[in-house]
Amino acid sequence: MKELLDQIEKLTSTFLKDAASQLDKGNRAAGLRARRASLELEPLLKRFRKLSLEAANNKAE
User: Fold this and answer.
1) One Pfam family name from the record (predicted)?
2) How far apart, in whole angstroms, are the C-alpha atoms of residue 12 and residue 33?
3) How far is Cα 58 from Cα 50, in angstroms, rounded to an integer?
């Protein structure tokens, strides 16, 4: 799960940097990179949710 969190953190920082660049400077290429990063984040976040629920359920038992 540590690896997953590292991947999410890296992609999130990339997304935030590129989204801010698009917003502040009107950089269209940065907007494209931000949208691409958001698409890559979605399955990672779903995987995190699944693993997190499994861990919570294992502790409850």
Assistant:
1) Hc1
2) 12
3) 12
The pLDDT of residue 46: 97
- The identity of residue 28, as a single letter, is R
d(CA 12, CA 2): 15
Angstrom distance (rounded) from CA 58 to CA 43: 23
- Count of Cβ atoms closer than 10 Å to residue 58 Cβ: 8
pLDDT digits (tens, 9 = 90+) for 6-45: 999 999 999 999 999 999 999 999 999 999 999 999 999 9
Nearest to 37 by CA among 22, 20, 58, 19: 19
Task: Assign 45 to helix, strand or coil.
Answer: helix
